[in-house]
């Protein structure tokens, strides 16, 4: 499925701030809005689905509070927006609900964590960009939420692109980047973890600037954890351009920070955002248990109309119906 199942013309014609009975409250200038007046445990009427789709395209990530979803309801809510992916193409998922990926705090400390060089963009990523057809969107549910700490941040990569100079935008419109799946820096890894990565190699060459399939926006398609080099540049040029772009992409004015509560839901456009999982939770004794479902995506297209090219690994395939 090429896009989240929404007609782009219809979606763009809907003002997400005017749809009754949903209340859409923006959280920052460029990204993030809370949506109220909706019960995600039940099938949604077409008007509410259209309003959520429109808000997602406009604000890039939308949040819901006080939603007591179980696994089946989580999957059912997501299916209203299109076909779903397997939980994780590298690590698998829940046996009973193969669409559900468990996002838990690793209680065992990583002995190498203190050796990681932390930069402003360390840990930022979009989901599974090493695949030829990364998920179009992700829906994360907070089940066990710490009383404080463990916030998540998102950044608007379309706004980041527009904030660059016209000269640099024109240059980057012609470039392509090599994405490889590796564990983000500072994460806890075991031998079994490494073996799963080695057995499920994912490498793809994507346009550095992606054209969003629904909004037509140009997006700085840089996933700091997975973009490894820029094609056609020397290693020195590639490294320094990537570091400049990564630092630019996570500037505070493009971001929103979300404080989780039990029953919170985050629904983000994976084609136009990157996000940062929290590191502070490892410094506490609090448990943190979340669950994620992802929607099928398309093959990215660059400014010149060229598509991404798979170097290693198979496309993500839809699961169930």
Overview of the molecule:
By secondary structure, this protein is an alpha+beta fold. It has one domain: Clavaminate synthase-like (Double-stranded beta-helix, 4-Layer Sandwich), CATH 3.60.130. The chain is built from 7 helices and 17 strands. The strands form 4 sheets. Strands 1-2-3-14-6-16-4 form a 7-stranded mixed sheet, with helices on one face. Strands 5-15-7-13 form a 4-stranded antiparallel sheet. Strand 10 and strand 11 form a beta hairpin. The longest helix has 15 residues. The protein is globular, with a radius of gyration of 19 Å.
Which features characterize this protein?
single chain; 321 residues; alpha+beta; Double-stranded beta-helix; seven-stranded mixed beta sheet; four-stranded antiparallel beta sheet; 7 helices; 23% strand
